[in-house]
Amino acid sequence: MSEEWKNQIKDQINTLEQLEEIINVTDSEREAIETLNTRWGTTPYFASLMDKDDPDCPIRKQVVPSLHEKNNKYGMTDYLVWKENRDTDEVRPDSIARQYKDRVAFTVLQKCGIYCRHCFRKELVVDDDLKLDFDVDEGIEWIRQHPEVRDVLITGGDPLLLSDEQIGYLIESLRDIPHVEMIRIGSRLPVVLPHRITDDLKKILGGYHDVPIWLNTQCNHPKEITDKTRRAVYDLVTSGVNVGNQAVLLKGINDDAQVMRELHQKLLSARIRPYYIFYCEPAPGIDHFRTPVEKGAELIRDGLRGHTTGLAQPMYVIATNIGKIPLMPDYYTMDKDEEKYVLRNHRGELTELPNIPE
Ligand SMILES: *Cc1c(COP(=O)(O)O)cnc(C)c1O
Ligand code: SF4
Hints:
This is KamA family radical SAM protein. It contains 14 helices and twelve strands. The protein is globular. The protein has two domains: 65-326, TIM Barrel (Alpha-Beta Barrel); 332-358, no CATH class. It has helices at 4-10, 16-20, 27-35, 44-47, 58-63, 79-83, 122-125, 136-144, 164-175, 189-192, 199-205, 227-238, 257-269, 295-304; strands at 96-98, 103-107, 151-155, 182-186, 213-217, 242-248, 273-278, 315-320, 323-326, 333-336, 340-344, 350-354. The strands form two sheets. Strands 1-2-3-4-5-6-7-8-9 form a nine-stranded mixed sheet. Strands 10-11-12 form a three-stranded antiparallel sheet, with no helix packed on it. 30% of the residues lie in helices and 17% in strands. The termini are far apart. By secondary structure, it is an alpha/beta fold. Iron/sulfur cluster binds at residues 112, 115-116, 119, 121, 125, 156-158, 188.
């Protein structure tokens, strides 16, 4: 039973024939699959959440290739080299991406549970354009030699697709490094393959330790949260792993105040703490998912801040080569002089507060 997750990977849906058994594939979807030279695929579990007849289904759009991927007016070539500062003087293993002094992203493999059509790392995980060498021991050794790194974000691909033994080795090796204070895991599996959270994995990730594990998943639409995901998150949280969410703002999927509110409320009801909403990054071939930059701040203004639980508030950020830049709504402070601040709330009401000189 606990090996069910391996079957889900083995039985991955990644051919037109398999897809046709699950949904009524449209002509343009068929043409995209047949003509685009791209890696795509999903677990049968996540595929089962797709609407059979609606090509605009939010899950289907994240899974099935689209002819729009041919357009690349606004995407940057060699996006990841720019974004992950791979072309700088600092000598680092391929597995280490760095934008900050105290924390790094540690890429440990290229495989994923689903190959998201909007993936900003698609040059690496989807299109295979960027050839990198992910040597886990080399990465661990580099971290060991950099005492300023206190926070290691294990990413991919999807790191939870590694075997239990490999994950155990990785966690133990990082916890063995005196300056590593916390470990983060970026994994979509609690959403696209919740079966991966097995009893054995809970033993590896769970239990009390001075160096905690924080896991951020990616869930973009309320339809993605099922009882299976709720259970997997409960299992993680109760074994001691903190679970957060990093949503991506996607045109036609969640660029709507009501959908965003429902998503963030549902995340909390599944014990997942909203962390970020990312602006959809200018990777090549994903123009059709991108909105104007302001859109995310507008959604927070119109759907989240003040409109629902304070815990349901992610920060809206644009991820760049120099780090994540917040782009939050800016209506709160309406006016300010030596005597007072004029503040505005989500209903448009104003209030005043005395200003204190320094
Ligand atoms: C996103 C990212 C981090 C983590 O950023 P936080 O804002 O701390 O979550 C660290 N390093 C790289 C290279 C990243 O892309
Ligand atoms: S799971 Fe993450 S890395 Fe993998 S395809 Fe989706 S967005 Fe990209």
